[in-house]
Amino acid sequence: MILKRPLISEKSMDLVKLNMYTFEVAQDASKDEIRKEVTERFKVTVLSVKTMNRKGKTKLQRSRKGYFSTPSSKRALVVLAKGDKIALFEQNKEEKAKVTTAENVTEVKEKKSLLKGTKIKVEKVAKESKESKEKKKKTEKKGTK
Question: Any long-range contacts for 88-96 (C-beta under 8 Å, 24+ apart)?
C-alpha cells in the first residue's frame, strides 16, 4: 500500500484550491508509483508529484523522565489536471432544515464532513407572533389619540 492517508490541515486545504493534494506515503515509494496509485484509486490525471522526507524528532517526556522519538514520514504533493478533484478533500457541505415553533422560526444548519463528525450550528430568527403585532397596533392607536 503506497498511499497511507490523506493529510488534511489548514495549509493543505488552501492548496486544494490550486489543485494540489497532500498524502502521507510509504518511505520506499517513488514518484511514478505514487502517480499510478493516485490515478488508479481516484480516476484523475496527475500532472506532477513532489515528495518530501520528514525526519522524526526526539522529544523529552517530562512526566516519566525519558526520551521518545516521533516516526519519520514521507509526504507527497500531487498536482492534478484542471477540473479533476478528489472527494476526500471536498469542503464541508451545508444542509438547511427549518423548524417552526409557535413564537419563532429556528434555522438549523448542518455541516457534514467526510473525515469528521456532523457539526450543527443553530441560528434563531425571531418572528413576531400575531399577539405581539396586535399589542403594537393598540399602543400606536392610543398614542395618536
Answer: 88/6, 88/8, 88/114, 88/115, 89/6, 89/8, 89/12, 89/13, 89/16, 89/21, 90/114, 91/13, 92/119
